[in-house]
Amino acid sequence: MGLPSYVINWDELSDLIADYLKNGVNADIGNITFNTEDIERLLSEIKDKIQCVDYNELIQALNDLGAKLDGLSGNLGILGTQKIHGKMLEVPAIVGQYTIEFTAPANSKLTGITYSQSSWRFEDSWDLVVEEEKLFTETRTKEYGEHKYFNVFYPVDGTIKFIYNNNSGSSKVVWVDFCILEGGSE
Fold first, then answer.
1. Are residues 69 and 86 in the same domain?
2. 35 plus 92 within the same structural domain
3. Is 174 exposed, middle or buried (0-12, 13-18, 19+ CB in 10 A)?
4. Does 152 reside within a domain?
5. Are residues 33 and 123 in the same domain?
6. Final residue in a domain of this structure, among 51, 75, 99
7. pLDDT single digits (tens) 16-41
8. For residue range 127-140, what is the model confidence (pLDDT) as tens digits?
9. Number of domains in the chain
10. What is the pLDDT of residues 36-80, one digit of tens each?
11. Which residues in 1-12 are b (16+ Cβ under 10 Å) and which e?
């Protein structure tokens, strides 16, 4: 159950709503459409309650916005099957670089990476290389496992290398999960 809310000054609120409905918000969001029938019905129901709004212009603007939202929704569809591929690496008590290699299926996208380790030392770090591009450089290890999200999925058609930099020279086990969107297209 929520708390009730009250409007103290209806005149100011109706002015704000009228201004919003009249002027709207300008945002360039590309070619988008959506169904405005419910909005049109609601606007016609409140037409006589709020004055000084040209509803025909407002309805046209909403229709234009609906068309743009439709286009955007079609462009956002990223298809494929999300899969997690886990690997393990035994790191000896020797300073050096130790690598986990994973070959992603063709036409895949890297959506994230998770790692954890059996023991932690602040000197250690890791790198992530996709094909020939180094995406993470000397990323510091954390005492607890960590997940790195890719806000923009990274296309992969080859090898992903997780390189553990054992600068501390301590032995440990490292677990890595590669989060892959397989067989997708945009």
1. no
2. no
3. buried
4. yes
5. no
6. 75
7. 667 666 665 455 556 666 667 777 77
8. 999 999 999 999 99
9. 2
10. 777 777 777 776 666 666 767 777 777 777 767 666 655 556 778
11. eeeeeeeeeeee
Per-residue DSSP letter, 21: H
pLDDT in tens, 79-93: 788 999 999 999 999
- DSSP E strand stretches across the chain: 81-91, 96-103, 108-117, 125-130, 133-140, 146-156, 159-166, 172-182
The contacts of residue 81 (CB under 8 Å, 6+ apart) are: 181, 182, 183, 184
Can you tell me the distance from the alpha carbon of 25 to that of 22, in angstroms, rounded to the nearest whole number? Answer: 10
Show the domain range for 51.
Answer: 10-75
d(CA 63, CA 83): 39
- Give me the pLDDT at residue 57, please: 75
The percent of residues above 70 in pLDDT, for the chain, comes to 69
DSSP-derived 3-state class of residue 149: strand
CB atoms within 10 A of CB 121: 14
Residues 106 and 65 in one domain: no
What φ, ψ does residue 121 adopt, rounded to 5°? -135, 135
- 181 and 108 in contact (C-beta within 8 Å)? yes
